[in-house]
Request: fold
Amino acid sequence: MNEESYNDLENDRELKEDINSILNSSQQVENIKIVHVYEDSNQVPEEIKGWNWGAFGLTLYWSIGNKVYLGLLILLSMVPYAGFVFAIVWKIVIAAKGNEWAWKAGNYKSIEEYKKVQESWKMPGIVAFILGILSILIVFLFFIFFMAIFFSIINSYNSNFGDTGIYDSTDTYKF
Reply:
């Protein structure tokens, strides 16, 4: 047990003793749960740092829902050419740092409350990510399919011309 945790336990014992001294001696408090409220929102607990699937998959909606308005920079993904690259990089950044930003922006009373809120974003974020990958894959496959048809038509059109490039209806074909 590290020194900080030990000090927290000592403070909890002192708090229980103070509560007991206020109450009658017949109303001893034995099993009281002490909930630590982080009043300093700049202090980010280590337990919540890490990857956030909600922020990654649903960046725009997650940002608004968690009051992390820096996440609205994802709208720059609409800029031609560079926007696509920016969107990928920004999604990775917000997924990695989003938990810290959301903790600082929110009024959470406990780590458990925060984790419960973020857990509700996890599955929709993963589903949105998978649907996005599938959409890109489908568009890519359609592109390949239509390019194959296009080149097939061009090839068949070019095969109807002789060496001169002029189609002569008197040419005979052997089957």
In short: The CA atoms of residues 6 and 121 lie 34 Å apart. Helices lie at 3-22, 53-57, 59-65, 82-105, 111-159. Residues 111-159 form the longest helix (49 residues).
